[in-house]
UniProtKB/TrEMBL annotation, chains A, B:
It comes from Kitasatospora phosalacinea. It comes from the Bacteria. InterPro entries: HTH_LacI, LacI/GalR-like_sensor, Lambda_DNA-bd_dom_sf, Peripla_BP_I. Keywords: DNA-binding, Transcription, Transcription regulation. One of its GO terms (molecular function) is DNA-binding transcription factor activity. Residues 12-66 form the HTH lacI-type domain. This is LacI family transcriptional regulator.
Amino acid sequence: MTESETATGGRPTLESVAELAGVSRATASRVVNGGAGVRAVLREKVERAVAELGYVPNLAARTLVTRRNRAIGVVVAEPEARFFSDPFFAQHLRGISRELAAADNQMVLLLAEDERDHERIGRYLAGGHVDGVLLFSLHRSDPTPETAQRLGLPFVIGGRPGWPGAESDRDLVYVDNDNRGGARLAVQHLRSLGRTRIATITGPLDQTSSIDRLDGYRDLFPHGDGDLIAVGDFTADGGIRAMTELLTRRPDLDAVFAASDAMASGAIRVLRAAGRRVPEDVAVVGFDDVESIAAWTEPRLTTVRQEIEEMGRLMTRLLLRRLNDPEASAPSSVIIPTGLVVRESA
Amino acid sequence: MTESETATGGRPTLESVAELAGVSRATASRVVNGGAGVRAVLREKVERAVAELGYVPNLAARTLVTRRNRAIGVVVAEPEARFFSDPFFAQHLRGISRELAAADNQMVLLLAEDERDHERIGRYLAGGHVDGVLLFSLHRSDPTPETAQRLGLPFVIGGRPGWPGAESDRDLVYVDNDNRGGARLAVQHLRSLGRTRIATITGPLDQTSSIDRLDGYRDLFPHGDGDLIAVGDFTADGGIRAMTELLTRRPDLDAVFAASDAMASGAIRVLRAAGRRVPEDVAVVGFDDVESIAAWTEPRLTTVRQEIEEMGRLMTRLLLRRLNDPEASAPSSVIIPTGLVVRESA
DNA sequence: CCGGTTTCTGAGAGCGCTCTCGGGGCGGGG
DNA sequence: CCCCGCCCCGAGAGCGCTCTCAGAAACCGG
């Protein structure tokens, strides 16, 4: 055991590796970082020393000089409780994790619930501990994108940001599911089934995903009937309320496109309670393809599937690319295709 | 703008703060870290300089000398896919996040899927980037606890570890829900309803939560009938299979305690399909109190509630306490009480 | 007004690493 | 045989911070 090894509280340093290998710290460093330009003899010596000592680089020291953390922050503004209750959250994280692991980067999870959290997160980002940021559930009032921009921290947003001008802001790179296209898919499917009086239950209209899904519906009904549109809130209870409303307004409806599976399950419940058969009398299509709901309604739910994990992966890839090549022009936003999963309800 | 400020790529350093305030770096550092032992005049000068420059300490540098990261790792071994699909994951993280935020610590999320991930995580932990570790979904084969122990990294486990000897290992601090007590609660409730032929559907018996829930059931039937016990897998499909099995073995059963809400929902489906009324003919109690299931079965599910978020918080608090006072004796493990939520199914 | 405390402050070392820069060794061309 | 160029390697500076240590300043009692 060498002198310098014991000095750092047991953990070997590059210095001790170099000493054991009989080379300089610089050479040891070269080997640890790929070994380019080091003779094979020395390289092997160093590698043996590394193995023997169980040397692991101290990243704090490395970060201090390279100014690279090999870590990215994932900021989730939580008040959108939906993000939490649905399995989306876990799937996103899994996608991010996989992509990050492949690039040997770490994920720092930052959950924001209130104003103070945003401040704390701002400070953290300013502290320079992450090389980039992934942002979810953006609100207009969310200060994080601005903070990141000011700090020169690359970031990628999950879901289309909704405030005015966001769309045209080239700095706002986002990844989103094709909500609008998915909605069109759903409605087209209902039409192909011969349905003509197709209603829709929307999500809360201050969220872009709701708006886009409604827009997709409207694409097929340019001169649509407002009575066939009811506003929900993505929850099953909201679906119940909206369906009840629709049923009184338009008892003749023969299909419903609900902008979430939870709302669809609520709607089905109401329909059956009202004596309508699903799908015979009223066909129902949902959105999300949440396994625990879609596979468990009676009848099983026809719905629009979105690739949540892929979304996480893509966001991460976009961000990493940007980190590795800061000079490159900002990548453009990406829309991930959605697909229809036909089961029994339509 | 001072010389040293521009040197670091725009971000002000302690040096530049000191310069602007007209004090030494040491004094500036003191102020930034609480300001004890600094005259008010100087303190204010420094504080103004900090505000003016927008100074934020570089944690890499700080970590390098203090050997404290103000970050903890959360390691989730994912193969237990349940952790991901259920809302548990998000709730745990939220609890952890809240507690960590209060202590101004960060959370590094480490998801493990395969062998390589465990290696990567081992390396990461060895890198000394986190001060402690929270471990979930522990398998016997999981090398992480051992790694942490070897590295002297304090850790706290979520859920009772199951391998032989784990229980008596004083170093293995864990936090768990009172699975056994919750199961007893459920069965007692069924008994109080006058039910006598109470069956149970267990989870996979290689998980301690399953075992503990089964043990709770057995506590009330010391000489129980093996025919009344069916092994499930925590999923709704598993519940269907197990219930079908139970119904053929013991058509006379009048109550079922399912070790998860998902299994309970499957069981209810089978029971109704078999013409049994719930709860009149067969009373059903679940476990978990997963909102999206328990509130949506028909009839609504009576179930055992567990405080997931509290579990995350508690684990975090235990870990932080340990970090702040490494000399203190290892805290003992904690069991969080569960409670019965009576709805309609029993 | 002076010596002894006590309180503050600044100089400087050092955390572990990367990276530049220059020197030494070696080969090849003149 | 000499010189030039190339390839490796090591010395050393420096990343931004904390913390010890010693000296300066302020304070007190006599």
